[in-house]
Amino acid sequence: MYTTALPEDKSHYPTGIWIANLRTGQQHQVSEGRDFAAVQVRPGGGNWLTCTRGTQTWNLNVTNGTIRQLTYGPEHNWPWWSPNGQELVGSLHQVGLTPGGYLCRLDSAGQRIPTPALEHFVVLPSPWSPDGKWLMVQDGLFLTGPGVQLYNLGTAQLCSITLPSNPDFDVAWLPDSQGFVWCGKDGIFATTLANGTTVQLRTGCERRIYNRITIASNGKMIVVERTDRRVESDSLHMYSETNLWTMNLDGSNERKMVFRNSRQRK
Description:
The protein is mainly β. The protein is built from no helices and 22 strands. It has a 4-stranded antiparallel beta sheet with strand order 4-5-6-7, with no helix packed on it. The two termini are 33 Å apart.
């Protein structure tokens, strides 16, 4: 089991792309440079990663470090591969469009897939449902309104889901593709597609902020970044501590992850 990382130098710039084996702890650098972002492993793609470099999307061979440009022209970034590794979506930036960039569908060779129904939509993180049938998007013309849109790739139809508050662009699909969990300013929520209902799993506030939510590979656990803030004894400064936390899919049994080499504040 592997993961990719973009470690930073003292100036908070990435120092390149690294691969880590989660079982053995072994790490090795596959590419140098400060301009990498949004690294994605291509499902079924063998030794290839996809990433943003500069203003374009690139493919990177982790075995020999070969890098190959995938997109050209207007700025393309933040690629997300479909579960079968045959298609990706990302953000296309052009003059006059929303600053976040509009959704762009590409095949594995980098060719555009025309999708008129999504012309003014923006892509959300982890947009693909695990079964590859849905794309989660948001209308780029109405970013301030609550709710997301689900695009059915089989019927080419859009389905609206109204949420009690705006997700902070942190959404994770449930393994069965029947719903998703997401973070908002008021905590963590779970939404079911069949009836559109949303339940709150954990409560958040200004002193407990949840974001960067994911579902563990076993499909039985939520992994989320939680920031706890408190006022220092002098009443003038705010101390913040950010850790990874896990919990069951229903929000129960919340636990902080402690890493052996992490340094705790004394």
